[in-house]
Amino acid sequence: MYPASFPIFAGIMEQFNIFLAQGFFHILDLQGYDHILFLFVICAIYSLKDWKQLLWIITSFTLAHSITLALSALNLIVMDAGLIEFMIAFTIFFTCIENIFLTRLHPYRMVFSFIFGLIHGMGFSRLLKELFMGMELNVLNTLLPFNLGLEAGQLIILTLIMTVIYTLRNFAGLSSKIITYLISIPVAIQSIIWMIQRWPF
């Protein structure tokens, strides 16, 4: 019984590791850096002492994109790819504007991060289906490892981002407002360019 089942188990684990690696390296791929910039502007207004608030925000974003990643990959929800890419750019732009002008919205950022996570999850699912076109996707050995890979990569990115912000604040002596502007204004400009390029209407 066990010898016969071992090759099946080994095949499942191999597939699991492949999807895990794909999720991990996708989010760290600088060629598709829109998600990295989104995380940058999400974190721009926070310092290490705000880690609890930031944790809730990132958790809501992660939960949301995990939901739509699964639903979209399994074709339970379907949206136009061009519209999704435009909406991803808009989430980045909105967060930049919130950072710069709409400070009163910051207490509600967990709600926005959840909504935006739903959008980013659909973008992740599109990539997943493109990478493994024709393969049957399921929850345990395809969607789960891909999402775990995304989260591992995202954790590394968040650590690097907060290290940069900590360095700018504590060693370069920049104020929180200056750091917010230095991050949010250039990213806002880039997101506008993306929205123009990705205009789906």
Gist of the model:
The protein is mostly helical and 201 residues long.
What proportion strand?
A: under 5%
Series of H and E elements: HHHHHHH
- Rg, rounded, reads 18 Å
Structural class: mainly alpha
Q: Which ranges are low-confidence, i.e. pLDDT below 50, for 5 or more consecutive residues?
A: none
Cα-to-Cα separation, first versus last residue: 58 Å
Share in helix: over 70%
The beta-strand count equals 0
The main pleated sheet reads as: none
Shape: globular
Summed up, the helix count is 7
Integer count of domains? 1
Overall average pLDDT: 86
Describe this structure as you would to a colleague:
The protein has 201 residues and is mostly helical. The protein has one domain. It has helices spanning 2-27, 34-43, 51-73, 81-100, 109-131, 139-170, 176-197. Helix 2 (34-43) runs parallel beside helix 4, helix 2 (34-43) crosses helix 6 and helix 2 (34-43) packs antiparallel against helix 7 (176-197). It is globular. The chain starts with a helix and ends with a helix.
Draw up the topology in text:
Layout: H1 2-27, H2 34-43, H3 51-73, H4 81-100, H5 109-131, H6 139-170, H7 176-197
Tags for this model:
201 residues; mainly alpha; 7 helices
